[in-house]
Design a protein that fits this description.
Elements lengths: L3 H17 L4 E2 H10 L14 H19 L1 H10 E2 L10
Parallel strand pairs: 1-2
Helix pairs in contact: 1-3, 1-4, 3-4
């Protein structure tokens, strides 16, 4: 089973790639990415394609990145992942 650290690193790497290209993904797309990449919930289940649970995972990945690398390195997570409406999900 992949670790939480690996999951957060994968989210950050994906966010950096998207941000560099000026693109975004919805929470639904993040859930699909995590499932395709073999990541599972803490209960060992695939991620449900529901925004609330994925928003929490993304928020935790952001907090992890801030603690480990600093806010500037974590900012792509804020820019890359959006609500279904296309609005950014985070307030600075």
């Amino acid at each position: 089973m992949k670790t939480r650290e690996q999951k957060y690193q994968a989210i950050l790497a994906r966010a950096m790639l998207l941000d560099a290209k000026g693109k975004t993904e919805t929470f639904l797309e993040v859930a699909r990415f995590l499932n395709r990449s073999g990541f599972r919930t803490n209960a060992g289940q695939p991620y449900a394609e529901h925004p609330r649970g994925i928003a929490k995972v993304i928020a935790l990945a952001y907090e992890h990145a801030v603690a480990k690398f600093g806010k500037n390195k974590a900012l792509p997570i804020c820019n890359a992942f959006t609500r279904k409406s296309g609005e950014y999900a985070w307030d600075e």
